[in-house]
Specification:
mainly alpha, 5 helices
Amino acid sequence: MAASEHLDELVWWADTEWADHPYRPAEARPDEADRQTRDYAKDLRHVALPVPLRDEMGRIELSLEVRFLALCRQPGLDCRIRQDVFYVAGRAAMALDLGHLEAAEREIRRMEQVGSVEPRESCCG
């Protein structure tokens, strides 16, 4: 609660006292605001969860990263399949952010299935 009050005070100060300052940071774009929120939530999660659960989440995150990069490096992967791999990897990351380990592992398996599909004609180019 105290942190929220301090944040409110800093925001008020930035909006009033520093509103016209040339070096005042610009408002974050929606994607940047989402990244900041996600990082903040991950920091909170890290402190709140028991160590064995954090270790398991770390193992799944590493597995996701390694498998995602391996799929992205496959030669001849068509654009549509690559987009599907990105989408399913994002779903796995979101499941991890929400603490749903089973869903994250299910999405990783889905991502591998999507990445093993035979390429069709390219949609990019």
